[in-house]
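Let us practice reading a record.
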Amino acid sequence: MAVVNAWVGATTPSSARVVAKISGASARLAVADNPQLSGPAWYGPVSASAEGIVSLTATGLAPARRYWWAVEDAGVLDTVTTGRFRTHPPLGEPGVFDFVTCGDAGITPEVPGVGAVVNGSRLSNHPVFDTIRLRDPLFVAHLGDLHYYDLGSNNHGFTGATLANYRRTYDDVLLQPRQHELYRNVSTVYLWDDHDFGPNDSDSTSPGRANAQRVYRERVPHHPLADDEGIFHSWQTGRVLFVASDSRSDRTPNAYPDGADKTMLGSAQRAWLEQLLTRSEASALCWLMPVQWLSGAVDSWGGFRYEQGQLAQMLGDLGWLDRMWMVVADKHSLGIDTGVNNLWGGFPNFLTASLDAGGGTSEGPYDLGITGGRNRYTRFVVDDQGDQIIVQGTGYIGTSPWRSHTFSILANTPPPPDGGGEPVPPQTPATIADRVSWLGCDLVTGQIIADLPDITGTVSRVLGAYTSSSLSMPVPVSGPAALGDIAWQATQPGTTMIVAVVNDTPAWAGIVMTRRGGTDGTVDLGCVTLEGYLDRRYVGDHDWVQRDEVSVIAAGLIADAQVDGIGLAVDAPATGVLRDRSYVATDDATVYSRLRELSGVEGGPEWTIDLDWTDSTRTRVAKIVRIRPRIGAVSATPGTLFSTAGGPSWSSTGASDARYTLVEDYSDGRGANYVLATSSGEGDARPQSQPAADLRSGWPRYDRRWSPGSGITDTAVLDEHAAAELALRVGGAATWQIDSRWDAYPRLGVDWRLGDDVRWELYGHRHPSGVTGVGRVIGWELDIRAGRVKPILWEPGGTT
């Protein structure tokens, strides 16, 4: 006995399904991990239906493994009509897999159907099916128009939409050698569209609706269906949820007016979809939709805008819009839209046709382009890296890539602990206090060793950099202020840090690097802020390709300083911005220098080391590396003076007694309009960027050449550095240095912090009529003896 036809589908990490048409009365399925099928596992026997159909499911398989299969028909193993498949990666775990999407084969085919079929001009045996099979994807998803028989139209050699006719369509498709070979050797997902469900533009009134649904269940190796009638269903691969929609079974006729009573999916599918997306714990969603989402055509979602808007609202309410993409077919073209033209959700949209169907066009709302024709399909590579899922979709024409779009989805699981270190404590609210207190703490644990007497000197912080301070501490040998030996334990160079507590929260910490004392009653302490420790630790070997700039690259650099380090907590959530970075230990680059290089590129992240209490006991100080696209609070345009609605403000006429200096600087290193970024090397061996220039009318050219970091070999990275440096330097440096009382509004730690947006209203000889402004606190300086705080403010654009 011989197998007539067979195909494989519904693969999972542990199972697969084969549906075959046989000549005998029963069949078994043999599955092995080798092409010779030696030592197979057997499944069945299963009795054949009256039409000779058997459905055989293999279970107990290993995940991410290739298997070969064959069907035993009436006791004889068919070694001709065989196939293979791969099981999926473990459910719910990160991993890498690929799949192919396609659609539309058989109208005016370039390679018509062959064999004893009803109408070869409505089928295809195109070589594109071989091309897809040789790509060996995990699965192929066919999004409809498997054929163009249009059952119910009484055309193309068929009369009526009978069960026999629907069964014949599957036999004719599987009689095509190239299609049959593909569907036997690559797990197949199949959804219908109009021409394989019924006549052109068919809907729920199609005369063959019930028969199409029944025969689909008989003949297709599908995943479990969610309904007794429609064929919509879902499955999960790794951490990606796939939704396969039925756009025909319950569809209202296209001619009906759009509104709440018109539907493409139907109430049952809508309710199922909402329940599925509410309960799913998947990290990403791929929605397989047979019809076009972006088109305005009446047979696409353009005729169902009301329901489309309701779906977009549901997806947004359930938190899926920034974690999904959609694949569509129907229009006989390839197209990619990154989300720019998707007014109904903003997620990427891929048009994936046609296999072999005429009539495609190269016009449509796809920002990366659209190309009509046959021999077309899309391949997706899903790279789940734990903290993010990177998806690359590439349209192919034959074996040649056409266009590609890569995007990342932030996973709904905590980022990997690349940065290591201590847990990040919640931020402690500040409380107004009338004095600055000082602590001597263990550098590694943050444990308070001693409350220190009033220290004098100036301390400061700057975004993404370390600063140094010279402090003086009284050390009486007797009396109530005498500390004895604990004063020396609390200020031991290399193992302790001095912490300034401002308004009841730790605001500044400096590692004690030098200590000088003798006859006098004071000891001088040379300190460097915690960022300086990173300039004493070196970067190891790393090769990051398209990884998140914060949660992977920046946190990974911090991790190099964590072994035998100072116990940093790392607050570095993923941003979705992907970069390439390669570092080698022999470059002798410090963690500090690499972080500054990373933050120095155009659009690079910002970073600082913040302080807080570890817990409510306030006996330990936490040291928190914060890395973000932007550090600090962003405020809208300020409102009334001294109103905190738009952000804190300084006034030279108010209680803060503010004085100011505006520094405008176009000196070397401060201003430039022609920038070149270079790396290490000499002559032609030295990598360098393209010039970044902004030569404005009336300005001479001011060059700046500088190296953002040694060992950068990628000129694209140097181009980013040059562009960022030009944006920073083209207008010169304009900073506002405000000198204000530290104990008056706005208060450090209470009303503003490093990186925050703030505002000011100032009067002076430079601005006798007054000047107001909005900018960022990029640094501050606190002079304890004088009782003054000096925020350093950067005004975007550098205007005055």
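A brief commentary: DSSP finds eleven helices and 42 strands in the chain.
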